[in-house]
Write a structure and sequence with these properties.
The chain is α/β, with parallel strands linked by helices and 328 residues long. It has a single domain, classed as TIM Barrel. Helices cover 38% and strands 14% of the residues. The strands form two sheets. The chain has an eight-stranded parallel beta barrel, surrounded by six helices. Helix 4 crosses helix 5, helix 5 runs parallel beside helix 6 and helix 9 packs antiparallel against helix 12. The N and C termini lie far apart (52 Å). Bound molecules: NADPH dihydro-nicotinamide-adenine-dinucleotide phosphate. The site of NADPH dihydro-nicotinamide-adenine-dinucleotide phosphate has 29 residues, from strand 10 and helix 11.
């Protein structure tokens, strides 16, 4: 029987999500990879419990995480109903809908029909009574934004979720959704964009909107799926994501400028960090993000990544050195 570590809240930092009442662990764990039907269930349990022992309170799902789509929610539900059951009130569990999930015209995008049906399916698969955060996973160019906003607002008002988030929305779309939701009395609390040293697009407008609107942010792929670690510096290791996932192909590794990664690795070493840790310190610098949403294939990666929080802040000189490498 699992008993959570008594010191779990000692090391982690908790950051306020925008101007809401919600705080998130500075490091959160996503279940996109390694929690589907082909993963090892024991490894999943070990990852969730070791993350929680380290103070990670936020776990992120989506309707389509697998493979097969939905299986990550099922596996997480199994873990919740057994191992993690006593800790539900200490957890922030999110899911999303926005990508293709079932056949026909109602299984994708952002209609009221799709979002509410998908939320109900996710509740069934996880066995949860409610989600803490429900996200629209990507903007829908066809459905009126008012309809999507009203569906998200209904999901909160009906008790299926506590907070609303969006993901992959542009600055303009975020502002529009934020204004609509505020008008409905169910504010937009969080945005989930991609952000890492190799993809800084949110610095060009989105972060300004988020700060102005008081919306928190959680960065997905903060390690660029593993590219921002030392693991690909000498080829593609067995069992790595680039060897086994359609989302990070060997070509993507080949097309990455590994001399830049090696140079970043050297800066990290000078700081006494691994590159993975420095990539997380960098993303969290200056307090603009609420949390970094890491993935992992084993508990030791989670421990290494959470240790990024014990390092000193990056200095102006180190940040300039990193910028010089990235701009080369
Ligand atoms: P990361 O960029 O953190 O990549 C995680 C992968 O990097 C791990 O699976 C592991 O890969 C490798 N890794 C992690 N830590 C280390 C380490 N210390 N040393 C070496 N390798 C390491 O994040 P993800 O790409 O997994 O995305 C994180 C989460 O973001 C997802 O689970 C999901 O919740 C969310 N997400 C949201 C999206 C959206 O559209 N909203 C899109 C994509 C993700 P390996 O298997 O090689 O060991």
């Amino acid at each position: 029987m699992y008993k959570a570590a008594s010191e779990r809240y000692g090391k982690m930092k908790y950051r306020r999500c925008g101007r809401s009442g919600l705080k998130l662990s500075a490091v959160s764990l996503g279940l996109w990879h390694n929690f589907g039907s082909s993963g090892s269930y024991d490894n999943m349990v070990n990852m969730i419990t070791s993350a929680f022992d380290l103070g990670i309170t936020h776990f992120d799902l989506a309707n389509n995480y697998g493979p097969y789509p939905g299986s990550a929610e099922e596996n997480f539900g199994r873990i919740m109903s057994s191992v993690m059951r006593p800790y539900r009130d200490e957890l922030i569990i999110s899911t999303k809908a926005g990508y293709g999930m079932w056949e026909g015209p109602y299984g994708d995008h952002g209609s009221r029909k799709y979002l509410i049906a998908s939320c109900d399916q996710s509740l069934k698969r996880t066995g949860l009574e409610y989600f803490d955060i429900f996200y629209h996973h990507r903007p829908d160019p066809e459905t009126p934004m008012e309809e999507t906003a009203a569906a998200l607002s209904y999901i909160v008002n009906s008790g299926k979720a506590l907070y609303i988030g969006v993901s992959n929305y542009s600055p303009e779309q975020t502002l529009e959704m934020s204004q609509l939701l505020r008008g409905m009395g169910t504010p937009l609390v969080i945005h989930q964009p991609k952000y890492n040293m190799l993809d800084r697009h949110i610095e060009n407008g989105l972060q300004t909107v988020l700060e102005h609107e008081g919306i928190g942010s959680i960065a997905f792929c903060p390690l660029a799926q593993g590219l921002l670690t030392d693991k690909y510096l000498n080829g593609i290791p067995k069992g790595s994501r680039a060897e086994s996932s359609a989302f990070l192909t060997p070509d993507a590794v080949k097309n990455t400028d590994l001399s830049k990664i090696a140079a970043l690795n050297a800066i990290a070493k000078k700081r006494g960090q691994t590159l993975a840790q420095m990539a997380l310190s960098w993303a969290l610098r200056g307090g603009r993000l609420t949390s970094v949403l890491i993935g992992a294939s084993r508990p030791s990666q989670i421990a290494e990544n959470v240790n990024a929080l014990s390092a000193p802040e990056l200095t102006a000189e180190e940040l300039a050195e990193i910028d010089a490498v990235l701009c080369k």
